[in-house]
Amino acid sequence: MKTIFPKIVQMNHDNKLETNIDKDMLQRHAVTVMEGLGAAVESLDDSRFLNSVLISIGQTHVQRQVKPHMVKKLWPSLNYGLQEVLEEYYTKSVEEAWKTVYDYICVYMKLGMENPDIDPDNTSEIGR
């Protein structure tokens, strides 16, 4: 996580997590991610809109030097957070549904990362 969030996760010389984590920045990013996940779930019936939003998010992440493999590595943390919050409601089928949504998000964010100059509303430009 320290390579993905160098401004938030600070490590000391012994490679141990520092206690002076920028908790405000971490919380803002966590809220943004959760709002994005919520919007993704709410937009599942409008895939064109959802895809364009996810491509755009991928494009903004390129500017922060984020690579697609870094986004995929966040699943275990998200999965853990969902388990903690949902407790007994986080069944195997709920986990699988969230994983499917997360994988979908990753696919379209990756498209945006790999195509930073395309118009997210016109994905027919991809591959040209």
Main pleated sheet: none
The proportion of residues in beta strands is under 5%
What is the H/E string?
A: HHHHH
Helix content: 55-70%
Broad shape:
globular
Instruction: Output the structural class.
Output: mainly alpha
* Discrete helix count: 5
Mean pLDDT: 83
Pfam families: Globin (PF00042)
Keywords: Heme, Iron, Metal-binding, Oxygen transport, Transport
InterPro entries: Globin, Globin-like_OT, Globin-like_sf, Globin/Proto, Mb-like_M
Family: Belongs to the globin family.
Description:
The structure is a single chain. This protein is mainly α and 128 residues long. Helix content is 59%, strand content 0%. The model has no long low-confidence stretch (mean pLDDT 83). It has helices at residues 23-42, 47-62, 68-72, 75-86, 92-114. The protein is built from 5 helices and no strands. The longest helix is centred in the C-terminal third of the chain and has 23 residues, at 92-114. The termini are far apart. Helix 2 crosses helix 5 (92-114) and helix 4 runs antiparallel to helix 5 (92-114).
